[in-house]
Amino acid sequence: MQKEPLILVINPGSTSTKLSVYRGKREVYAETLYHTAEELSAYRRITDQYPFRVRVIEELLRKNGFGDALFDAIVARGGLLHPLEGGTYRVNEKMVEELLEARYGEHASNLGAIIAWNLSRTRGIPAFIVDPVVVDEMDQIARLSGLPELPRKSIFHALNQKAAARKAAERLGRKYTEVNLIVAHLGGGITVGLHKQGRVVDVNNGLDGEGPYTPERTGTLPVGDLIRLCYSGKYTREEMLQRNRGRGGVVAYLGTNDMREVERRALAGEPQWRLVFEGMAYQVAKEICALSAVVAGKVDAIVLTGGIANSELFVSWIRERVSFLAPVFVFPGEMEMEALALGAYRVLVGEEQAKEYV
What domain range is 104 assigned to? Predict the structure, then answer.
């Protein structure tokens, strides 16, 4: 019997690097490396850190018995590239060059493909990224906003949303490309996407203030009042940007973005805390129902994922408002490492073709 492929998974964050080793679909090793401010201060740009991160990853692999492991592939979190269709992409020189230049923006996720490329070349194996943050499959009609200068953009939790969608399709006994799903990622940012037969054809821009309010983002605001507030003289441009992303949403109402505290105080019967917590669920439910119109209500399942999906109270408020549309599946937490590993696995076993970055 052919052995299951051995896959190294790398997920870089601003001050950490998550590592996993998968044998087929099963995780056999996991660890998170934390990098101190002192260690990182030696590097002017984020991408300058890659030789340091490669070195500490190799040291950790040796220490844990994987130094000479015959990996079949390395897969990493994708960074800021030009807009792409979802899927598994082979890391190539063009991709690495653009990430090193930070051509489309500077972010810790840019390190993923660069690190994977360096490690893979010394081992003579392929490197991949899966469903990077720039996945854009929106229909043209969904891009219309009402002002030509302000087209709607696809910026969402692509990796986790697509992983949860695939799990839901599997539970339905069908392929991801055969079903219509509405997936809500519930975390520090909240994005709700319509997955129509394998493509996310409409989704709110969760980064920049669209859709439901979140623990620290405002979401969609009354636009006339927003314009008047911007020109009121009370706030600078930077202060307004911070109020939109960082000091909006639950933080603006309650002074905290800790959803565990919010849930605890809501359950304790504190009216304002319960109102704001339920208000966020209310807006998520509205977003889900609005997206159902795109497919004329032909929704096979609704999927809730992300950290806040661990809250039974929050999930119950959404479920009672949307379950008339379709069954509701809940996959709490983030599945990034698993999603990355499975993306590489599907290519290695021939279930999917790797895409080329051009």
Answer: 6-134+337-356
